[in-house]
Design a protein that fits this description.
The protein contains 6 helices and 5 strands. With 171 residues, the chain is of the alpha+beta class. It has 2 domains: 128 residues, Ribosomal protein L10, N-terminal RNA-binding domain (Alpha-Beta Plaits), CATH 3.30.70; 39 residues.
Length: 171
């Protein structure tokens, strides 16, 4: 069934708004996934703060042409049945969500993506992005690295004090 022109205009407006605020957009081929599997993917994505959209590639191209950052972006990879994962808060999460889901569901295959700067990302770049730690994991790693010297000083002081106390107890 054909979509009316008004409905298409609404979809393009929604996509334009979504893509203009996106930190990253990743697309994947989903041919062969069942409706239940797509619902499972949407649930996992929602929990990670990622939006999943299944729309015609032509409408995505039209929306991208309306955003200055994406005007010159290569969209030749937008062919076939694609779903789009978009996050406005984390650059890694769309790739991570799709890659994690693809491990258990062979019908889902990462195909590419777009950065918030308008650069087209290849399949290999998206897979590399998916293997990176998420924003929160990176923050935790930095904090742990910064606290490491403090923890070492506290441990050394505690060990010295316990040595002095046990020495005094022995006398």
């Amino acid at each position: 069934m054909a979509i009316s022109k008004d409905k298409k205009s609404t979809l393009v407006a929604d996509l334009t708004e979504l893509l203009s605020s996106a930190k990253a957009t990743v697309y994947a081929r989903y041919q062969g996934l069942t409706v239940a599997e797509l619902q499972e993917l949407r649930k996992a994505a929602r929990e990670a703060g990622v939006k999943i959209k299944v729309v015609k590639n032509r409408l995505v191209r039209v929306a991208m042409n309306e955003i200055a950052v994406y005007k010159d972006t290569d969209t030749t990879g937008l062919t076939g049945q694609l779903l789009y994962a978009v996050s406005d808060s984390d650059e890694v999460m769309p790739a991570k969500v799709l890659a994690t889901f693809a491990k258990d569901h062979e019908a889902l295959a990462l195909a590419g993506g777009f950065s918030d700067l308008g650069a087209a990302l290849s399949e290999d770049e998206v897979k590399a992005l998916a293997s990176m730690p998420s924003k929160n994991e990176m923050i935790a790693q930095v904090v742990a690295t910064l606290l490491s010297p403090i923890n070492d000083v506290v441990s050394a002081t505690a060990n010295s004090l316990s040595g002095i106390i046990s020495g005094l107890e022995n006398k």
